[in-house]
Specification:
The complex is a heterodimer of chains A (532) and B (366). In chain A, 32% of the residues lie in helices and 25% in strands. Chain A has 532 residues and is of the alpha/beta class. In chain A, a hairpin with a 5-residue loop joins strand 12 (272-282) and strand 13. In chain A, helix 14 packs parallel to helix 15 (459-474). The longest helix of chain B is centred in the N-terminal third of the chain and has 30 residues, at 107-136. The chains are: A alpha/beta (532), B mainly alpha (366). Chain A binds chain B through residues 30-36, 38, 74, 232-233, 321-323, 325, 349-354, 360, 362, 367-374, 378, 381-383, 385-386, 391, 395-397, 399, and chain B through 1-3, 217, 221-223, 226-227, 229-230, 233-234, 236-237, 239-244, 359-366.
Chain lengths: 532, 366
């Protein structure tokens, strides 16, 4: 380690004149042949909210991991408060006053908030003193920053938004002056996201510096003072947020003009493809997840289901997609193309659904839609391994045919890199989703179920996936779209149903409604004009 | 993110692990006042330098291939079958019944019959834990361990009270008829030029190799294998795809049990010519180490089984020709398992560090 570098603890004798909380100079990092960061320079002024935006795989997370000591840069220097600082591990980062809130929270589910906050920074072998000290400190922090978390609540009982606040509390308790948030709103409802931004503004007013990593343009425009744009491992530009626009940022990110609005013609609905009557689902604890849902979808129509996550949308997709968790009970009547389909037991599995002409892009592609350790071509067979075109004879699968088919789909859906031997986990989120979407749409289903089609997907891929969904609609197929992104629902749907607490609160015409009205319905405040 | 080149991952990591295990073993031998170099010479000479030694080594290898494949197949379905020990013993029962109660005209037919019997009994013994796992969620690790004990007790009962011939003192079945004696490799035309002495390894060796190829083809070339691997990687995704979990658990465990059971063709039919108590003699557990070291790939299992065959035979030689007790082979095996299995990541991390300077960036390939 170079002599000039000081590990952590910059506050001790930091030159007070440095206007920058973080300065990175010439940071480069490669993983094998992939250059994740190339000669990155960035300066984050103290007491500002600084956005870092870029598509998935642009190198944002790598850069922040270097700053937090998970990776060591191959070259380059890090200055914290004007002081050259070595950050070989996350302990040094914490000592340097850096706190990180990860996309996937690192909380112990069956510990209380208080226990999670002191975890790893206990004062001694006995917990009592640490807990008492932490309790006082937590109360002060909650009061100062509008964090509003019960210190004695168990993590597993908290909403996702509250869990995130616990992560922020953890960082603040460790005296973080610089707070890095990685894709913080990916799991939040619009209201929770707004609250988060209020908290961040409060922190800024107290002099903290905040780095916000995201690929959502709207958040950048709303919350940040400055924004740095990354593309393919390089820093493209840093601009004042007030002096730019979403369109300009999108162009910087992708490197070409991007259509932020979905262009689609009017729908030409045909025959009823799917009719759902009084669908109910009760989970293994006896809680009703769906409380009698009824709707119809016609050929050539996209029905969008809006709603805050956890109001029954997942169960709706699970029943229709034949992947209801064991222990859940479903009842009601679902008719597909004139034939009633089983909701439970035999004939209600994923294979039966696919045979019946239902394809399903699941909400959670990493958990359901893909086997991450499988290669791309193995994933293209996933769910469709029984298709005759993939069989060589009665005994063996035709893996060559499958690989050819995969190459064709990867080309058509612009999956990058177009290497069918790469495991699914090596693709970026957007490309993973393209593999799933390609697999499901290319089966030419009568009904496509789509859950959160663009969650964790970069802008370029969002545009592409939206186009494919509209193209399938225009080919006369029925589409059920579930999304927590209101923008997506509003721009893609031909009709909108809003779900709250296992019920459909109402149907709306996307042309004749707005976010405010949908927001009220999503919060369970019934509108008028119920229709089914 | 940082990764090793594939050849280093497949070849170098196990070799370095082995080397470390050998070094520690040498230190252990030194500490009991013996010469490790002399010990290694005895092991190699006794297991690899003579036709007779090869015969023993390959005989053990055959047994370990079966049990290693059994663990491997179940592992790909996400199931840890440590019931090989019991399944081997029940397989032995199948072999014994087939050999004793069916009059076979020729050894080749007897081999087919005994193999089927061994597979059926081994599979049946695995079926119960599999059913409990699939339907009741009883953890397969716990139940298969318990079934090892039940198998041992059952076999003692059967051998003492039911199958033991009148007048015999030891708990074993009667000797199998002469038409069921399997040819040793020194009796196989062509191979008798290599194996000039009467050796232990018999034609079951080829059955073991065939099974390795069959398991490979099953896992990576068939729909069933595809479903087994998918289920093993992600149960939730398997539910999404419509893969029936009960079916996969049952089929994978039945095949796993059948493979373990087939080991009895090698020892009970090929060597002992009667069913003895504790016929598995630890091979079921060694199968776990073999699968671990073979990276759960059938061809890796064959290589790992050979290594363990060598250790087993070499260890026996130690007991014969040196003052080093035969138990030393358990120490050596333990160290090999420790380094190739448990400490695998440690060796990998060291190698990744060593390789890092050679895997510098090619510019402009981001």
């Amino acid at each position: 380690m170079a002599n000039a570098e000081v590990e952590g603890r910059p506050g001790v004798a930091a030159p007070p004149d440095s206007p920058y909380a973080i300065e990175l100079k010439g940071i480069s990092k490669a993983f094998g042949p992939v250059q994740a960061n190339r000669d990155i320079n960035i300066s984050v002024p103290k007491g500002t909210i600084h956005g870092i935006i870029g598509e998935n795989g642009a190198g944002k997370s790598t850069l922040m991991s270097i700053l937090y000591g998970f990776y060591r840069a191959d070259s380059g220097e890090i200055f914290i408060n004007g002081r050259l600082t070595a950050i070989p591990d996350s302990q040094s980062a914490i000592r340097a006053g850096i706190g990180m809130v990860f996309q996937h929270f690192k909380l112990v589910q069956n510990f209380t908030v208080l226990e999670n906050v002191i975890l790893g920074v206990e004062d001694g072998p006995m917990l009592r003193t640490s807990l008492a000290k932490a309790r006082a400190e937590l109360e002060r922090l909650s009061r100062d920053y509008e964090l509003d978390v019960d210190p004695d609540a168990l993590i597993e009982d908290l909403s996702v938004g509250h869990q995130q606040r616990v992560e922020i509390l953890k960082a603040l308790y460790r005296q973080a002056e610089i707070l890095i948030l990685d894709e913080p709103t990916g799991v939040l409802t619009p209201a929770e996201a707004d609250h988060l931004f209020r908290i961040l503004k409060g922190l800024k007013e107290q002099g903290k510096t905040i780095v916000l990593i995201t690929h959502k343009l709207r958040e950048i425009m709303e919350a940040t003072d400055n924004v740095s744009v990354m593309r393919r491992g390089t820093m493209v530009d840093t601009v004042k947020t007030a002096a730019t626009s979403a369109e300009q940022l999108a162009e910087l990110m992708v490197g070409r003009k991007v259509l932020l609005e979905v262009s689609k013609g009017p729908a030409h609905p045909g025959e009823v493809v799917l009719s759902v009557e009084n669908l109910q689902v009760r989970d293994e604890h006896g809680v009703d997840r769906l409380k009698g849902v009824s709707f119809e979808i016609r050929a050539g129509e996209i029905l969008g289901i809006a709603g805050v996550a956890g109001n029954g949308q997942s169960e709706l997709l699970a029943v229709l997609g034949g992947m209801l968790e064991p222990g859940n009970r479903a009842s009601g009547r679902v008719v597909l193309e004139g034939g009633q389909i089983a909701l439970q037991g035999r004939g209600a599995d994923g294979q039966s659904r696919r045979r019946a002409g239902i394809a399903h892009v699941p909400e959670d592609r990493q958990h359901f839609g893909l086997i991450l350790d499988f290669t791309a071509w193995e994933n293209v067979a996933f769910g469709y391994y029984n298709e005759p075109e993939y069989q060589k004879n009665a005994l063996f699968m035709d893996n060559d045919a499958l690989r050819d088919d995969t190459r064709r789909k990867m080309e058509k859906f612009d999956v990058r890199p177009p290497d069918c031997w790469l495991p699914a986990k090596s693709f970026s989120g957007g490309n993973q989703q393209k593999i799933v979407v390609a697999r499901e749409i290319e089966q030419n289903p009568d009904l496509l179920l789509v859950g959160q089609p663009t969650r964790g997907v970069d802008i370029g891929a969002i545009e592409f996936i939206h186009k494919q969904i509209v193209a399938l609609r225009d080919a006369g197929k029925a589409i059920l779209l579930v999304s927590v992104e209101l923008d997506e629902i509003l721009s893609l749907s031909d009709r909108i149903a809003v779900m709250f607490d296992g019920r459909i609160m109402g149907f709306r015409d996307p042309e004749a409604t707005n976010e405010a009205e949908l927001g009220l319905l999503m919060a369970g405040i019934a509108g008028n004009g119920e229709a089914a | 993110m940082d990764r090793l080149p594939r050849w280093a991952d497949v070849v170098l990591v196990p070799l370095v692990s082995l080397l470390l295990a050998a070094i520690i073993s040498a230190l252990v031998i030194l500490s009991i006042g013996e010469d490790p170099w002399a010990a290694l010479k005895v092991m190699v000479e006794g297991s690899l330098m003579t036709g007779l030694g090869w015969g023993y080594t390959l005989y053990y290898t055959t047994s370990f291939i079966f049990t290693g494949l059994a663990v491997t197949l179940a592992f790909h379905a996400g199931l840890f079958n440590i019931g090989g020990e019991g399944q081997v013993q029940l397989g032995g029962l199948g072999v014994a019944l087939a050999c004793l109660y069916i009059p076979w005209p020729h050894w080749s037919l007897a081999l087919v019959g005994a193999t089927l019997g061994a597979a059926a009994f081994g599979a049946a013994w695995a079926a119960i834990p599999a059913w409990l796992q699939a339907k009741r969620g009883s953890h397969i690790v716990i139940t298969t361990i318990m079934f090892n004990y039940i198998a041992a007790s059952l076999l003692v009962y059967l051998l003492v009270d039911v199958l033991r011939p009148q007048g015999e003192q030891s708990p074993a079945t009667a000797r199998f008829p002469a038409t069921t004696v399997l040819p040793r490799l020194n009796e196989v035309p062509g191979l008798n030029l290599i194996f000039t002495d009467k050796v232990l390894v018999n034609v079951t060796f080829f059955l073991a190799l065939a099974m390795a190829v069959a398991v490979w083809a099953l896992l990576w070339r068939t729909r069933l294998g595809y479903q087994i691997r998918a289920f093993g990687k992600s149960e939730s995704a398997a539910r999404y795809a419509g893969i029936n979990p009960t079916w996969i658990i049952m089929v994978a465990m039945l095949m796993s049990g059948a493979l373990a059971g087939m080991m009895s063709v090698n020892n009970t039919m090929g060597e002992a010519q009667k069913l003895l108590a504790n016929s598995a003699a630890g091979a079921g557990f060694i199968g776990i180490a073999v699968a671990l070291m073979g990276r759960n790939h059938p061809f890796g299992v064959v290589l790992a089984a050979f290594l363990f065959g060598f250790l087993f035979q070499g260890g026996a030689e130690l007991g014969l020709w040196t003052k080093i007790p035969i138990e030393m082979r358990i120490v050596v095996q333990g160290l090999v398992i420790l380094f190739t299995g448990a400490l695998d990541m440690m060796v990998r991390m060291i190698l990744i560090r060593l390789f890092a300077p050679f895997r510098r960036v090619k510019p402009g390939t981001a």
